[in-house]
């Protein structure tokens, strides 16, 4: 359904070259580097607040689709009226109907652009809803990384992790903490 959610790992990616530079810049420190990873895709699927935000967004999008459908239906009816009634209308009435049709088309196109255009309400609302969830995830990951003394936490959903020991996976713990915060009301 056109999900556009922005995941924590979908921002700037740290590629292998950047990681190599990081490790080369501190060779003595590299041996002590402590790393973990999360799967943000799984977090978004299992975190209650993320699912709730997605549901709200989906309902909002459905409302916009319904409204667009009504506007499109009105334009189709105006087109039919102009086509079917043109032969029997005076030139003034025909012109009025054509003006009404053009206005209906412009209204529909303006509405669609205002919702689904590059700076449309759908993109803005999606960003707003996602940013709240991303901030919550980031806070929990940062706290967990601090508690475990981790230097780096990667996101497996970014596609750069080919192999990692399962003991480095923080995903389940992040989901557990996020859902605990969500049910206790401490997340907001």
UniProtKB/TrEMBL annotation:
Q: Does the keyword Signal apply?
A: yes
Q: Which residues form a coiled coil?
A: none
Q: What Gene Ontology biological process does one annotation of this record name?
A: protein stabilization
SUPFAM superfamilies assigned: OmpH-like
- Could you tell me which InterPro entries the record lists for this protein? Chaperone_Skp (IPR005632), Skp_dom_sf (IPR024930)
Kindly indicate where the leader peptide sits in this chain: 1-30
Q: Which UniProt keywords apply?
A: Signal
Q: Which GO terms describe its molecular function?
A: unfolded protein binding
What family is this? Belongs to the Skp family.
Q: What is this protein called?
A: OmpH family outer membrane protein
Q: What is the lineage of its organism?
A: Bacteria, Candidatus Eiseniibacteriota
